[in-house]
Design a protein that fits this description.
It contains two helices and 13 strands; from the N terminus they run αββββββαβββββββ. Strands 1-12-11-5-8-7 form a six-stranded antiparallel β-sheet, with no helix packed on it. A four-stranded antiparallel β-sheet has the order 2-4-9-6. A three-stranded mixed β-sheet has the order 3-13-10, with no helix packed on it. Strand 7 and strand 8 form a beta hairpin. The chain is extended and about 70 Å long.
Amino acid sequence: MIEREMHPVLRIITGIFRTAELGLSLVVHGFFFILIFMVLIAAISSDKPTVEKESALFLALRAEGLRAGGALPEAHSVGLKVRRSYHDREGQPLDLSTRGVPLGTLVFVKITVENTGHSVTNLAIVDHLPGGFEIENPRLGREDPASEALVSKPFDAEYIDMRDERIAAFGELSVGKTVEFAYAVRAVSAGVFRAAPATAEAMYRPAQRGRTGVKTVRIQEPWDPAP
């Protein structure tokens, strides 16, 4: 099939129409852009909404943390007893309050929960990390077998939620049973910090709960003298 060459005049006319079509498209898009911009400016610069009818306004605020200089919560148990301990890779207990650990040390945290109340099908075990520590997430290839070797009555967690500042495990716990849950953290920032209580709670029966006390932890700088 032989294609005929377009006549120069037709080629010029076609180019003019294509240029006009492109210009029209730019004009339309520009118009809509200006329209949206004007709407936004009007919304920003408009007067504040007025109250047509006076009525009561309710505001609820919730804050979590430890009050500086205030009384620290003590261990408490209502149907669930919770204990927390810190260990090295060999399973030996660590004294983080007085001796502390050097920067970069791998520490294993063990949470023990004993059910002295009713059977719980929706148990939540939550431990807030103190400042200076970071979870060794096994999902990122940082799993250490020492965590499993540390527990003799492992908690069969249905789901584990790992965040920057806490770890939470969910599952069941029959009455009279005791379970242990362990995970690894690494000391990443030197200083003196407070570890908030580790807690255990029946999610749909909040009256059945327990917590540990607050603990002070120390992370030493590399140049700090040995305690």
